[in-house]
Amino acid sequence: MKYDVQLCEIVRRAEIADDTYDFTVQAPAFAAVAKPGQFAHIYVPGRTLRRPISICDIDRENGTLRFVFQIRGAGTADLANFEVGDTLDILAPLGRGFTVDPEKKALFVGGGIGVPPLLGAAKYYGQNATVAIGFRDKNHVILAEDFKAAGCDVRVATDDGSFGHHGLVVDLIRDVRPDILCACGPMVMLRAVAAFAKENNIRCEISLEERMACGIGACLGCAVELYDENGEIYMGHVCKDGPVFAAERVVL
Amino acid sequence: MKYDVQLCEIVRRAEIADDTYDFTVQAPAFAAVAKPGQFAHIYVPGRTLRRPISICDIDRENGTLRFVFQIRGAGTADLANFEVGDTLDILAPLGRGFTVDPEKKALFVGGGIGVPPLLGAAKYYGQNATVAIGFRDKNHVILAEDFKAAGCDVRVATDDGSFGHHGLVVDLIRDVRPDILCACGPMVMLRAVAAFAKENNIRCEISLEERMACGIGACLGCAVELYDENGEIYMGHVCKDGPVFAAERVVL
Amino acid sequence: MADLQVNVAGVSFHNPLIAASGTFGFGREYAEFYPLSTLGGISSKGITLKARPGNPAPRIAEAPGGMLNAVGLQNPGVDHFIEQDLPWLREQGTRIIANIAGNTPEDYCAMAEKLNDTDVDMIELNISCPNVKQGGVQFGTTCAGVSGITKAVRAHCKKPLMVKLSPNVTDISEMALAAESEGADAISMINTLTGMRIDIRTRRPIIHNNTGGFSGPALLPIAVRMVWQTYQKVKIPIVGLGGISTWQDAVEMLLAGATALQIGTVLFTDPYAPVKILEGLTKFMDENGIRSLSELTGAVQAW
Amino acid sequence: MADLQVNVAGVSFHNPLIAASGTFGFGREYAEFYPLSTLGGISSKGITLKARPGNPAPRIAEAPGGMLNAVGLQNPGVDHFIEQDLPWLREQGTRIIANIAGNTPEDYCAMAEKLNDTDVDMIELNISCPNVKQGGVQFGTTCAGVSGITKAVRAHCKKPLMVKLSPNVTDISEMALAAESEGADAISMINTLTGMRIDIRTRRPIIHNNTGGFSGPALLPIAVRMVWQTYQKVKIPIVGLGGISTWQDAVEMLLAGATALQIGTVLFTDPYAPVKILEGLTKFMDENGIRSLSELTGAVQAW
Ligand SMILES: Cc1cc2nc3c(=O)[nH]c(=O)nc-3n(C[C@H](O)[C@H](O)[C@H](O)COP(=O)(O)OP(=O)(O)OC[C@H]3O[C@@H](n4cnc5c(N)ncnc54)[C@H](O)[C@@H]3O)c2cc1C
Ligand SMILES: Cc1cc2nc3c(=O)[nH]c(=O)nc-3n(C[C@H](O)[C@H](O)[C@H](O)COP(=O)(O)OP(=O)(O)OC[C@H]3O[C@@H](n4cnc5c(N)ncnc54)[C@H](O)[C@@H]3O)c2cc1C
Ligand SMILES: Cc1cc2nc3c(=O)[nH]c(=O)nc-3n(C[C@H](O)[C@H](O)[C@H](O)COP(=O)(O)O)c2cc1C
Ligand SMILES: Cc1cc2nc3c(=O)[nH]c(=O)nc-3n(C[C@H](O)[C@H](O)[C@H](O)COP(=O)(O)O)c2cc1C
Ligand code: FES
Ligand code: FES
Question: Can you tell me the ipTM of this complex?
Answer without folding.
Answer: 0.96
